[in-house]
């Protein structure tokens, strides 16, 4: 573990343990996408269609995480997948990927803290929601300001609350299905009710891909934490290896339980708003089991989910800005690390931007919706970059005379995994708002696809200005360091 260098600047500290990384990966998956919007997937595509869509998307995310795991265990760097794009593909891709991801989280933080304020109004409706939002914004700043360990511990306990909630929900749901709780056994009758199990055919399943994709965003945070993991070769691979089983248990099984108990025609499944927690599928099913305070409990759980998302967002964007500075893609002072191992100027810079974005809601009433839509595709662009980087990494690794057996962690089904992820992410990005194109609704198109032209502008700006090219496989830099950060496997 590295300490102060003697000139007043410290270095990134490797203090995140395996349990932290496991919960960070898990917490990144469980959020409002599961607790609130999962019901809309059943309503759109029927129980069978929702399970197929989430299953396929879950498999894709698993492939992506094993790709990220192979690269991160070989080269555990802070802000990893942006650095991988620079080293294995093209510096212009790394430049665009890093700024795209930073932008994504910087504008998502105010969305999450705004949601926290709305959730708090459930108990205290007469207090302005911005008061609670401001408190959460200050809180997540302090957590990230103290140390990376404080971030890891916070995420561990917040994720644990969500995990316990889902486990209890699954137990209660199975009891209702079997008739142990809530009256008569429900069984599987809703799977062949009216047009079930598949409603709307393939187009409906594709539309659910979008919902599933947003639900799973955040799992790539494991790659961001790689540079601060105490034992990256062990902890990263363990956290990623269990991703598939987490998705199976917490999404596939939860959707199965909801679909068994609530028919796809139930109007409550259309709810996708944190302001109406009483209509969450989780709340409805807990009430059916006789839990009178279900709405309050689920509101508390959703509050932990949005606080967790804001906390992780500030951590991820700070580390990405730090990585950009160390790669030479941002002002150098953003790469400064204090004695506690915090990239302090990157943290403050990100906080300023997030606070300004949060303040826009006082000027533009629809700012919350605009920020939500604008950040939507950034995560899928990051996933595309991970797939491309891993494909190139493995090609370069073997082209330079290395054997795959030398790698401590192997991605699943290479090259099918990254190719499958690339194709599916492309489909999701292109199909994000087909209706807007059909109606030539240009304002809607601009908001929905804002991150795509932003990414392309960044990419071509750097490529044209610095005349970069795709790096030949035999010239790819496989050394375990970036311009400003070294990895010493003996330091642990």
From TrEMBL:
PROSITE patterns recorded: AMINO_ACID_PERMEASE_1
Pfam families attached to this UniProt entry: AA_permease
Membrane topology: Multi-pass membrane protein
Keywords tagged on the record: Amino-acid transport, Membrane, Transmembrane, Transmembrane helix, Transport
Recorded coiled-coil stretches: none
Membrane-spanning segments: 21-42, 48-65, 102-124, 130-148, 160-181, 201-223, 244-265, 285-310, 342-364, 370-391, 412-434, 446-464
Locations listed in the record: Membrane
InterPro entries the record matches: AA-permease/SLC12A_dom, Amino_acid_permease_CS, APC_YAT
Top-level taxon of the source organism: Bacteria
Domain Amino acid permease/ SLC12A: 20-470
Location, primary (coarse class): membrane
Keyword Transport: yes
Protein known as: Amino acid permease
Organism from which the protein derives: Limosilactobacillus portuensis
């Amino acid at each position: 573990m590295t300490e102060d260098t003697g000139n007043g600047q410290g270095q990134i500290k490797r203090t995140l343990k395996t349990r932290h990384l496991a919960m960070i990966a898990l917490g990144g998956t469980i959020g409002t996408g599961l607790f609130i919007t999962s019901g809309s997937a059943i309503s759109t595509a029927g129980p069978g269609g929702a399970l197929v869509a989430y299953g396929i998307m879950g498999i894709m995310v698993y492939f992506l995480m094993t790709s990220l795991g192979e690269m991160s265990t070989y080269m555990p760097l802070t802000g990893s997948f942006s650095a991988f794009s620079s080293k294995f593909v093209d510096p212009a891709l790394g430049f665009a990927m890093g700024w795209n991801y930073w932008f994504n989280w910087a504008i998502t933080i105010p969305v999450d803290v705004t949601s926290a304020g709305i959730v708090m109004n459930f108990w205290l409706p007469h207090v302005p929601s911005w008061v609670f939002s401001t408190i959460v914004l200050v809180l997540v700043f302090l957590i990230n300001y103290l140390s990376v360990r404080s971030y890891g511990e916070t995420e561990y306990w917040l994720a644990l609350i969500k995990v316990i909630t889902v486990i209890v929900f699954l137990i209660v749901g199975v009891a209702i299905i079997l008739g142990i709780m809530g009256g008569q056994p429900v069984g599987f009758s809703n799977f062949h009710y009216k047009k079930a199990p598949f409603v709307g055919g393939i187009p409906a399943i594709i539309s659910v891909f979008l919902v599933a994709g947003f639900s799973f965003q955040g799992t790539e945070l494991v790659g961001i934490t790689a540079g601060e993991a105490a034992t990256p070769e062990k902890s990263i691979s363990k956290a990623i290896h269990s991703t598939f089983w987490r998705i199976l248990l917490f999404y596939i099984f939860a959707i199965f339980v909801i679909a068994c108990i609530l028919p796809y025609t139930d109007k409550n499944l259309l709810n996708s708003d944190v302001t109406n927690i009483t209509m969450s599928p989780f709340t409805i099913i807990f009430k059916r089991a006789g839990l009178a305070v279900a709405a309050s409990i689920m509101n508390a759980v959703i509050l932990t989910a949005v606080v967790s998302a804001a906390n992780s967002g500030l951590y991820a964007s700070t580390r990405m800005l730090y990585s950009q500075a160390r790669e030479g893609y941002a002002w150098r002072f953003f790469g400064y690390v204090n004695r506690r191992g915090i990239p302090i100027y990157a943290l403050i810079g990100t906080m300023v931007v997030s606070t300004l974005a949060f303040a826009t809601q006082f000027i533009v009433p629809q700012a919350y919706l605009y920020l939500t839509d604008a950040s939507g595709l950034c995560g899928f662009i990051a996933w595309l970059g991970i797939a491309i980087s891993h494909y190139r990494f493995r090609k370069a690794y073997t082209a330079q005379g290395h054997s795959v057996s030398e790698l401590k962690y192997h991605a699943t089904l290479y090259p099918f995994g990254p190719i499958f992820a690339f194709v599916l992410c492309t489909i999701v990005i292109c199909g994000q708002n087909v209706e807007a194109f059909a109606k030539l609704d240009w304002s809607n198109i601009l908001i929905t696809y804002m991150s795509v032209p932003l990414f392309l502008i960044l990419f071509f700006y750097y490529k044209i200005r610095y005349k970069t090219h795709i790096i030949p496989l035999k010239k790819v830099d496989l050394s375990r360091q970036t311009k400003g950060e070294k990895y010493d496997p003996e330091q642990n």
